[in-house]
Request: fold
Amino acid sequence: MTTYDVAILGATGAVGQELIGILLERDFPIKSLKALASARSAGRILEIGQEKLVVEEVTPESFANVDLAFFMAGATVSRQFAQAAQDRGVVVIDNSSAFRMDPEVPLIVPEINADDLSWHSGLIANPNCSTTIAVMALAPLHAHAGLKRVVVSTYQAVSGIGAAAIDDLHEQVVQYVQGKPINATTFPSPSAAKHYQMLFNLIPHIDAFDEGGYTKEEWKMVRETQKILHDDSIQITATTVRVPVFRSHSESLNVELHKPMTTADARRILEEAPGVKVYDNLAEQEYPMPLLTTDDDRVWIGRIREDFTVPAGLNLWVVGDQIRKGAALNTVQIAEELIKRDLV
Ligand SMILES: NC(=O)c1ccc[n+]([C@@H]2O[C@H](COP(=O)([O-])OP(=O)(O)OC[C@H]3O[C@@H](n4cnc5c(N)ncnc54)[C@H](OP(=O)(O)O)[C@@H]3O)[C@@H](O)[C@H]2O)c1
Reply:
């Protein structure tokens, strides 16, 4: 079996840590593994199965003698090091927003558009976590009846901001229980001009504000969905909201199709789709929730019902672990697909 020299940039972060676990779980064919991060974490020891790995500060030379690099350190760092890695012959799978909309860069969810890997030129983008969770439910419906319009509202977990946000919500819980004032420093994002309490609150502001009063997160859901599904005619509008949940993003999808589809057909189509679990039994009060989907690889779909206000409409409730399928797992699946197709 061929094995690969692998580097993980952002190995100490929420996604990087999950990715290491998934590589081990799935017996990824690793010859050597390099853990890269900033100077802050250089020298830190990571436990990888029985082995210990010392974190190194990333430099362009870190990518010498590497076959495959997973980038999960944010867009600025990706822009800084992607070319250096590619110049050294490395195939980069990038988790940030830096290159997703570049027409030269495939944006991949393997269950949906793995064939787009055939035109990669050393750089492949992993979609935004909310986009991946939505398209896992939307793509099978699109294939059968064509998506005309989608209205998406998200309920996004704090871990979507990274490891520091998980700690911050924990601290807010402790401060509340101890009757202390809540010290808000991370939400809606560490770099925002103002910060709000996350505990017992909802914040309709994910990533920076952009064109038309939408946030960048909302635009990512529009543009990335169209790119993955190869159809710019799909009308999509989004409202993205941070909620005080540690892990797993939830999404309400209101879908208008070109052809009518019964809820029974929608359920059958989704049950047959790879990577999703239909969990929709009203008699037993069963529907997806973040606590059920956390640490699960599948995107769970429930509350499937007709939208009676349009000729061919459906409402769905979709929940998935955004650190796994929304980030680390999807990245590993892309790498596995590259290997299967002999594209590394
Ligand atoms: N969290 C999610 O649910 C999620 C989902 C989809 C995509 N993503 C994307 O995945 C990426 C990582 O997110 P995360 O949630 O894992 O963030 P995180 O927990 O904050 O981790 C960030 C990682 O990047 C490293 N890093 C930061 N600045 C660096 C620099 N200047 N040079 C080298 N390394 C640097 C950090 O290393 P240090 O230890 O040295 O600080 C850490 O390993 C982001 O692009 C994010 O948008 C995240």
